[in-house]
Fold this protein.
Amino acid sequence: MIKKRAILLSLIVAVSCELNAQIVHNLELSGGWAHISGNSGLDGFNAAGALWFTSRVSLAFDFDHTGDVNALTPFALQSNTGLITVKSRAQDYLIGPRIFFHSKNVKVLQTVHPFAEFQAGATHLHSTITQVGMPSLSASDNSGTWLLGGGGDVLLSSHWAGRINLGMDRTHLANSAQSHLRMVIGVVYTPGSRKLQ
């Protein structure tokens, strides 16, 4: 009985180690600068990960943290209002498929791998309005979000790539729909080789 348990435990450990090695081999980590348009726009960072299922299909998770501080300077000239500032901060949590394409026929594009993606998730927006001599006012909202876009990876080596990503980010904050351009420029690292076949 003890011998059977030892054999079973050895098999479980061997299979789990092999699966963990395969997952790490198919993992992708990326990050960079993020910009979301609208009003004056929000700038910040993107942190992402993906799991490759084939050499062309991955499941991607993106986290964006963006923000901005705007001063409403025309009101500063009026003696009864003073300077008004608006501080906005937004976080996006998105997950969805990313499908890569390539062209072996175009020699210049052999290191460029374009992709299309659809992601869905949630957005949290927090805004604070501050006026000189008055208490600050804050408001926040959560919303479902979806993103349709694409971009391209420029392979720098078998493990590193530069990435540009553009998409339409659709939110429904404050009971109203908003469409914004989302742009991410960054770098990508994969433990496994990134050569598409």
Remarks:
- The chain has a mean pLDDT of 81.
- The chain has one domain: 2-189.
- The chain has two helices and eight strands.
- The first helix runs from residue 2 to 25.
